Amino acid sequence: MNELISADSIFSIFPERGKSSGQKMLSLLAGPFEYLFGLNRLKSIYESLSSQNDLRMFMRQGLSALNINPVFKPQDKMKIPSSGPCVVISNHPFGMIEGIILTELLLSIRPDVKIMANFLLGRIPQLRNLIIKVDPFEGSDSTSFNIRPVRQALRWVKQGGLLIVFPAGEVSQYKISRREVTDPVWKNSIATIIRHAKPSIVPVFFLGQNSVQFQIASLLHPHLRTMLLIRELLKQQGKQINFKIGNPISYQKISHYNDDERLVDYLRWRTYIIGHLHSQSRILKLPAIISSVKAKCYRPPVGQQSVEVYRQEIEKLPPEQKIVKSGPFSVWQAQAHQIPRILREIGRLRAITFRLAGEGTNKPLDLDRFDAHYTHLFSWNEDTGEIVGAYRLGQTDEILATRGKDGLYVNTLFHSQMNFYEKLGPALELGRSFVRPEYQKHYSSLLLLWKGIGAFLVRHPWYRVLFGPVSISRDYSDLSRRLLATTLLRHSNVKDLAMMVRPRNPVQLKPMRIRGCNDIIHDVQFQDFKDVCSVISDIEIQRKEIPVLLRQYLNLGGQLLSFNIDKSFSGVMDGLIVVELFKTEPKMMERYMGIDGMNKYLSYHSAHMGKCPAISMKISA
């Protein structure tokens, strides 16, 4: 049970009032000052809660009394570990309410929660077992005072508890040099706790900031800023407080940061990047205006033809061109002259599917000059008479010999040297792939297409390399696209091939400024692709996954060479990817080729080991 302490003794500016003349004068001043700074209202709220000894209910009823509505995505609660050492870090835009909100939320997940907070809050009996008291005011005694709470926090996390930390210590304030409201410098003590306890770290970002009057007061004097915090808390009454919970960061992912300052900078970056798109959303940029104008100029796709027309073309195809069968679904390979009506349907479905993904040419049919001489791989639902999806394959040995580089679609996106194709050897250029929207909920539709590619390779085993453009649409933010590009290029192991190609319209890969972060943190080094995927999930408001085809190629061991912006295809960012199949893990090859097909394919390459098919390629300039 908490001892009964009056609200006056907790929230009064001058709690000790005696009979001396000086104390009587303070007593006379206390009322006006407490009214001015909102203490009288806070006293009233506390008095209505003072009998509540359950900590979570105390927090919940406090939010209710203040009429404050925290808003976040309920599924984000799953990101908080239900047990084990954990540190939750957050920006500090308001000064008080974010601590109440986080405590109430986290106590609904697990009971072992503590928070590093201003020692003045220790006056409140209900909070005494919750708070690890620190002095945020950076006075002459603050450093020595804070040694003990850091040790206490470290013990708590090491024992498997959850700790809430606002590493700035003080509330966000206006920085004239950066012309923005942001946290002060984060304390390195958080790095000490993390290095020794090795916890999971969960970043949280609160949207919003205190009033203009508060920011002006902050510039005048820090004590005035502190005194106004309660009034700022009361200004939130009747409002929503929006916040986002980021993906957990394992200690292993940050253990390579040997310097405390670099580690803290990274953690700050991971926190502020969660709110990056929200800080940009109020600005209507020129590309967005242009896109909205283009949207009004879209021409609707052409109409669908009779299903019987498609059935008739398929019935005329030689049976051996059906290369995969799975229930009512089959995968066929064909040339354009064999399937003129099906190809038109493929072009119609491309236009629809790409447009829904924020890509495409915006034409009624998505067909081009390359369709005439490329091989088409398409999946067919025999029951419904529907084209489910398709791929376009360019056989480089044949195309280069008869048409030269201009016969390859990839040449419209990237300048390339002839020795690039000689280095690749016989290869398949993959592109223009899609699965129609009705079938995208099931991965099996894409898997069937890839089994078709596997079957094609077993029939044509001399193709040992897959390559082509993989698109990242403008539905992803510029920041996400840049992070993807820089990370994938940095981890690429085919620098020799990358030197042989050059984008026709290069991607701007300069680091973007993140509000609230120093420029030094722009050189973020991600340990692996999963790392950057986690960050992009934090950035994107719609929680987008990484493009499924990009993930597919990377699972096969794909390496990125370069990135290009395709202005004729809705401004998508195309990455030129190369998959050397003899470096692909056998289990992945078996998945698409089957065990017998994989053995046949590998046997071919084993028999031809030491021979270089590239030497006999006839390449037309």
In short:
Helices cover 41% and strands 18% of the residues. With 621 residues, it is of the alpha/beta class. It folds into 3 domains: 1-51, no CATH class; 53-275, Glycerol-3-phosphate (1)-acyltransferase; 305-616, Aminopeptidase, CATH 3.40.630.
Tell me what the structure shows.
The chain has 621 residues and is α/β, with parallel strands linked by helices. The chain folds into three domains: 1-51, no CATH class; 53-275, 3-Layer(aba) Sandwich (Glycerol-3-phosphate (1)-acyltransferase), CATH 3.40.1130; 305-616, Aminopeptidase. The protein is 41% helix and 18% strand. It is built from 24 helices and 19 strands. The strands form four sheets. It has an eight-stranded mixed beta sheet, with helices on both faces. The protein has a seven-stranded mixed beta sheet with strand order 1-9-8-2-5-3-4, sandwiched between helices. The protein has a two-stranded antiparallel sheet with strand order 6-7. The chain is elongated.
Mean pLDDT: 86
- Please tell me what the overall shape is: elongated
Hey, roughly how much beta strand do the residues contain?
A: 15-25%
Q: Kindly report the CATH topology of the largest domain.
A: Aminopeptidase
Helix content: 40-55%
CATH class of the largest domain: Alpha Beta
N/C terminus separation: 87 Å
Examine the secondary-structure arrangement and name the CATH architecture of the largest domain: 3-Layer(aba) Sandwich
What is the radius of gyration? 31 Å
Q: What is the count of DSSP helices, taking H or I runs of 4+ residues?
A: 24
Total domains: 3
In total, how many beta strands? 19
Question: Low-confidence parts lasting 5 or more residues at pLDDT below 50?
Answer: 22-26, 282-296, 610-621
Strand order of the largest sheet: 10-11-12-13-15-16-19-18
Largest sheet: 8 strands, mixed
Structural class: alpha/beta
